[in-house]
Amino acid sequence: MLHKHEKIWLTLSSVMIIGFMLFTGYQTFALGMGPPSHTETIDPQKVDEIEPFDEPGVYETGDNKYEVVMTLEAFMFTPSDIEIPAGSEVTFIMTSKDVTHGFQIAGTNVNAMVMPGYIQTITQTFNEPGEYLVLCNEYCGAGHQMMSTTITVN
Ligand code: CUA
Question: Which residues does the UniProt record annotate as the domain Cytochrome oxidase subunit II copper A binding (predicted)?
Answer without folding.
Answer: 54-154
